[in-house]
Give the backbone structure.
Amino acid sequence: MAFSITHQIGALAGTPITVTEPSTSSGESTASVTASAVRKSPAAGLTCKIQNPEGKETGMLTPPMSPCRSPVLGATRPDLSVACQAYVTEVEAAPVLEHEIRGHVEKINGVPVFVMMPLDSVTMNHTVNRKKAMNASLQALKSAGVEGIMMDVWWGLVERDAPGAYNWGGYNELLEMAKKHGLKVQAVMSFHQCGGNVGDSCTIPLPNWVVEEVNNDPDLAYTDQWGKRNCEYLSLGADTLPVLKGRTPVQCYADFMRAFRDNFKHLLGDTIVKIGPTVLLEIQVGMGPAGELRYPSYPEGDGTWSFPGIGAFQCFDKYMLSSLKAYCESEGKPEWGSTGPTDAGHYNNWPEDTPFFRKEGGGWNSTYGEFFLGWYSQMLLDHGERILSSAKAIYENEGVKISVKVAGIHWHYGTRSHAPELTAGYYNTRFRDGYLPIAQMLARHGAIFNFTCIEMHDHEQPQDAQCSPEGLVRQVALATQKAGVPLAGENALPRYDDYAHEQILQASALNIKGNTEGKQMCAFTYLRMNPQLFQADNWRRFVSFVKKMKEGKNTQKCREEVEREAEHFVHVTTPLVQEAAVALMH
């Protein structure tokens, strides 16, 4: 019997596939094909006793064993494909690592890879966008060994028309598609507007009734010293004020997360995020523009800012100024409470262009500068604390992980003031670690620290801007290690080349001083699923990358062996990938 692409993928995954065959004299019309059936192992029906957390034994089916190292067969079968060896669970696995998250101990060999879905995966009409393409793409991702997908759950779509009226159409179907293909899901609670950031391919505004309130009270939007409003995310100065039809913004975020939990309760611990033996749901909580915990200090979409400008402070709406005034009075500095710094330059200035950020005698290093930056960064930390407290209370008994995304602001990192980080709310200078307080805040809530720019090399960036993404990633890795919080990564920009993949592999290994336990990143999310990913050369490199990430730094396999396994599987999945690429293009 000849096997089609579906048979081969199903066999590799150990999934039963019903095959319709011509009738035979015996009357048999169907056959069930699995990986175990192909090798006809007498061990297919074995069970084993597993110690559960309570110490009780439970009988359950053994995991599928690799035909190349089956204890029953005792030797590698020469007639079995390399791809089957690569994608069926190995009995002789590499030493496992443990990541402890909110009481759960998760064992993995390497770093699981998730793929970010298109921003417009769900349409404004609450349906799955390009359904045929989506289905083919998810099947292709699963065939590559991808652990799961990350998707934005847009506040502006779900609660668009009226407060408390949630429409989960599209998301219900998308999650069921992921479940059908055996993919886990990282769900991002996206409380920001889509459009205006790097890579934004569509526009999804905040809910209509929220936009109405902002129009009535423009100070609900972040504001710079020149009065320019940024409506991408509500000003955190209004977090605890009932400015949204009688509810506070934090209450609205909490109600949304609670509604998501209740609507998808049947999928919690099932469809979304499985690492090792523990099945978990990951909720990434959006806390600012682009879903990141930061101020909108470098808005690119409208041409206000361009790389590598220093950005601008966002504390000039009436709610932020009111908080600043109250803080200054409580600290005995009322003269500093009327405004933020006005000598910090413009969005596209460089540090040395400004009195506030210059290295010699800059205001950032003065008594006033330290006072202001302490308040500005603490406001951001308090914002994160409020939302995380709500998220933890909502999902605490659901066995889910919570993560928070932090921006990788690497330009002017080599200067003393680190101006772009300061305007974004990260009080990080040559003399102060601004990421340790963030990591400690996340650790208090058992959350994951998700960081970007993992794929970047220093020398690829403009050196006159003293960029150092590699130095920044090392600093964040050390901060998370010190705080005892898991670190996950993302690439900031789409990359399909081996050079970027190799950098991600190196960064995810966490080869940093003090990492004596061999810890790695707990997950990596790849930006993004699109037609370019499924182009032949890009797909070949991507499959190899996923395989290397899953093997981890403690693998006993050489790189050449991993490459051969990946190449074989690329060949097997070519028709499926071609279907996905064509479907996405149309």
